[in-house]
Amino acid sequence: MASVFIVEDEAIVAGDIKEAVTSLGYTVSGMAKTGEAALEKIALAPPDLVLMDIHLAGSMDGIETAGAVHEKYQIPVIYLTAYADTALLERARVTQPYGYIIKPYDERELHSAIEMALYKHRMERSLHESMETTLLVINMTQDFLYLIGADGKFLLVNDAFAQYTGMGRDELTGTSAYDLVGRNLLTPRMACWQLAPRTERHLAFEEQFNHRWYDVDIYPVYTGRGIVGKYAVSIRNITAKKQAEEQAKSNAGYLRALIEEASEVMVMLNNDGTFAQESP
């Protein structure tokens, strides 16, 4: 069962909260009357959730303490308060709390707030881990990988593409792909400009651009209503491959010319031993 840390400067109220939390099946990992004491104890044994009174005695109030808990440990915090004015709630909102409980409260309200906070935190952590894994994977390649919204703005880019543009990943996110078209870094098709995928699930083409060749794959991502919401784009530089193909064609043409002009009998064989070319 989840562990809960209680920060409350009134001993009787703190005891009542502890009893209620325990009766709901949670473990009370610790209690503190001041923000300073709370931070010291939480550092030694981080709980799954903190119940924080907004109004605390001492140099740190509940809001400042909650901000430190969020920044250092990313532990969900639920505020406990008997009253709060607009300015106080605005300060509290900055610390990204997972809920508020107004005193006096009943156990059902407390139980619901704790369960919702724990669930939200699990989902956020899972999403964060998923995003970190995704970034790790897409940054393992030198191919250009990015996600573009239907409005033409970058939602996600990999390091290779960011390096190519001379911008940072975070700097690129939210900017328009059409700006890179204007800077001659992408073609309109690479920026998914005026694409009409309809029901296609994959668009593939080769693009010659700035004296280089690129293999481009675009995957439209459809919403539940069948409308394109974004595009996943993969771009691979195939210039070396194209140059090798052209060199191979040139070599083959040169050998054919030698064979045709030779006075002796000469043949060019395929890998399987069959005749590819013979002199007249």
Q: Care to describe what's here?
A:
The protein is α/β, with parallel strands linked by helices and 280 residues long. It has three domains: 3-134, Rossmann fold, CATH 3.40.50.2300; 139-237, Beta-Lactamase; 241-278, no CATH class. 41% of the residues lie in helices and 25% in strands. The protein has a five-stranded parallel beta sheet, with helices on both faces. Strand 4, helix 4 and strand 5 (99-102) form a beta-alpha-beta unit. The longest helix has 32 residues, at 107-138. It is elongated, with a radius of gyration of 32 Å. The model has no long low-confidence stretch (mean pLDDT 86).
CATH-defined superfamily of the largest domain: Response regulator
Could you give the distance between the termini?
88 Å
| CATH structural architecture of the largest domain | 3-Layer(aba) Sandwich
Question: How many β strands by DSSP?
Answer: 12
Residue stretches low in confidence (pLDDT < 50, at least 5 long) are none
Q: Mind telling me the CATH class of the largest domain?
A: Alpha Beta
User: Helical element count?
Assistant: 9
Give the SSE string.
Answer: EHEHEHEHEHEEHHHEEEHEE
For this structure, the CATH topology of the largest domain is Rossmann fold
How would a textbook summarize the main sheet? Answer: 5 strands, parallel
Classification by helices and strands: alpha/beta
Q: Outline, from the CA principal axes?
A: elongated
What is the CA-based Rg, rounded?
32 Å
| Spatial order of strands in the largest sheet | 2-1-3-4-5
Rounded average pLDDT: 86
